[in-house]
Amino acid sequence: MKKTSNFFDKVYDVVKQIPFGRVTSYGSIAKFLGSPQSSRAVGYAMNASHKNPDIPAHRVVNRIGLLTGKHHFDGSNLMKDLLVNEGVIVKINQVQDFEKIFWDPVEEL
Q: Is the pTM of this model over 0.85?
């Protein structure tokens, strides 16, 4: 991961590491970055990232697997559709088998 002082860039560096077909949470990214109280700031970073196709923001959900950022994507179902295209099962805007496909940057990076 590159060194940077900008919090959003640090978030993006982590998000780019989330494997295809896996998801992580705002809080897990914040914890990995050494700022566990900054989940909301991670969310702001994700909201600002949607125009950059290199950042798979659709793989970041809340702590119980809800697609809380879906309204920031173009189209009402784009976040869900992107996850489903990666093999993630989503029902009523919640990732199914969340614990099974959860990617924890603290353990993986």
A: yes
